[in-house]
UniProtKB/TrEMBL annotation:
Pathway: Carbohydrate metabolism; tricarboxylic acid cycle; isocitrate from oxaloacetate: step 1/2. It comes from Leisingera aquaemixtae. CDD domains: EcCS_like (cd06114). One of its GO terms (cellular component) is cytoplasm. This is Citrate synthase. One of its GO terms (biological process) is tricarboxylic acid cycle.
Length: 431
């Protein structure tokens, strides 16, 4: 992205500056301010990056007004209904849908990397049993840089590829180990005869004492949840991964940073917070009380799973998850799950409330996912680890794109300084 004919003129302190304008294949134009400070001696100011493009990318596009999400141009609802997670991984990583031969080779490479170094089992034993699985995930994924020394050099394309495959392959194993450790059950090794989603369910729910047969309904629902969480342009955790990798840090450390950021309740932690909120509401007749609390500026309570920085229309992932919740709960014979009824009535009430209409607040990806995951047998503490293992391919795809970008340089924002100006030290006896 170098040439452009368009520009914007900035008049400042009696001078004028031409700011090049770049036009995307989709979405808003961008003003190139890279030379602004050198030319005009001023910074731009945008806490929370509400109007700032941090990079260019070809991976994922979101149209917040339409409620559209594209991965390499393919809409998320088509991928969720027609594709499967490892095929979406291939698409995100390499830019095109694979041929049958390419897909088979990719699936074989991932399958053969699903086991973790045996010594990592000891690493888990250092955690308390009641540690949140996200705490374990951050620690163990970061520790992968202590075990896989042959894929740490980010300047080597082969090592970058191996690290990408290892992370996509091992995150389900590590997440399942974190779950097993938290409930005092033995770790379950991955099986090469199971597909990605079935393998994860097997590692989470099988026990040595008896045969475990993966329910194909749950396996398909699991795979769809993985697809729906795979990537989402420059969200907080992806931006964290990009910023960490801009210093040249190894891929395992960068993904551990992304997992840490995702944990927050304003981001990936919202799926756990949302289910806990639905349980606190408990019944549809308490919904008005919570809607009022969400609108009360003096009350820190927010509707978890609602609202989004980019979507000002329904999150297309929430639509698919709502349909999936109906299907999965009906197939499991729990369609009258009270939490699903509360969620649907809460959505209906909020979407008819002027506050939510005016602020364009809609259900997001975290609103229905927890209902499905709980029906599948997962505790709420495993919801965000599942989001993290799904999003690893998005983080890694964006990481690879950034590392390969010749314009890549360390991220180093500036600030609007409002502190003390220069002053001399005062000895303690004079204070
Ligand atoms: C994810 O970025 C991504 O793409 C993230 C993600 C991904 O796939 O990576 O999509 C995953 O993180 C989804 C979001 C999950 N978080 C939640 O569900 C938590 C609840 N939602 C909010 O905290 C909030 O909506 C955010 C954090 C999601 C977005 O916050 P913004 O864009 O900074 O918006 P804001 O906080 O400035 O809110 C705008 C207004 C405010 O009112 P005013 O100050 O203008 O009067 O809307 C209000 C907010 O108070 N508001 C809410 C609300 N969300 C925003 N009011 C009640 N309930 C809510 N959920």
């Amino acid at each position: 992205m170098t040439e452009t004919q368009k520009s914007a003129t900035l008049s400042l302190n009696g001078d004028t500056y031409e700011l090049p304008i770049f036009s995307p294949t989709a979405g808003p134009d961008v003003l190139d301010i890279r030379k602004l400070y050198a030319q005009a001696g001023v910074f731009t100011y945008d806490p929370g990056f509400t109007s700032t493009a941090s990079c260019d990318s070809t991976i994922t596009y979101i149209d917040g007004g339409k409620g559209e999400l594209l991965h390499r141009g393919y809409p998320i609802d088509q991928l969720a209904s027609k594709s499967h997670y490892l095929e979406v991984c291939y698409l995100l990583l390499y830019g095109e849908l694979p041929t049958a031969a390419q897909l088979e080779d990719f699936e074989t490479r991932v399958t053969r990397h699903t086991m973790v170094h045996e010594q990592m089992h000891n690493f888990f034993r250092g955690f308390r049993r009641d540690a949140h699985p996200m705490a374990t995930l951050v620690g163990v994924v970061g520790a992968m840089s202590a075990f896989y020394h042959d894929s740490l050099d980010v300047t080597d394309p082969w090592q970058r590829e191996v690290a990408a495959i290892r992370l996509i392959a091992k995150l389900p194993t590590i997440a399942a180990m974190a779950y097993k450790y938290s409930i005092g059950q033995p770790f379950v090794y991955p099986r090469n005869d199971l597909d990605y989603a079935a393998n994860f369910l097997h590692m989470c729910f099988s026990v040595p004492a008896e045969e475990y047969h993966v329910n194909p309904i749950l396996s398909r629902a699991m795979d769809r949840i993985f697809i729906l969480h795979a990537d989402h342009e420059q969200n907080a955790s992806t931006s964290t991964v990009r910023l960490a990798s801009s210093s040249g840090a190894n891929p395992f450390a960068c993904i551990a940073a992304g997992i840490a950021c995702l944990w927050g309740p304003a981001h990936g932690g919202a799926n756990q917070a949302c289910l806990e909120m639905l349980k606190e509401i408990g019944s549809v007749d308490r919904i008005p009380e919570f809607i009022e609390r969400a609108k009360d500026k003096n009350d820190p309570f927010r509707l978890m799973g609602f609202g989004h920085r980019v979507y000002k229309n329904t999150d297309p992932r929430a639509k698919v998850l709502k349909q999936s919740a109906d299907e999965v709960l009906e197939l499991l014979g729990v369609e009258d799950n009270p939490l699903l009824q509360v969620a649907k009535e809460l959505e209906r009430t909020a979407l008819n409330d002027p506050y939510f209409i005016e602020k364009k607040l809609f259900p997001n990806v975290d609103f229905y996912s927890g209902i499905i995951l709980e029906a599948m047998g997962f505790p709420t503490s495993m919801f965000t680890p599942i989001f993290a293992l799904s999003r690893t391919v998005g983080w890694i795809s964006q990481w690879k794109e950034m590392i390969a970008d010749p314009q890549n340089k360390i991220g180093r924002p500036r600030q609007l300084y409002l502190g003390e100006t220069l002053r001399d030290y005062v000895d303690i006896e004079k204070r």
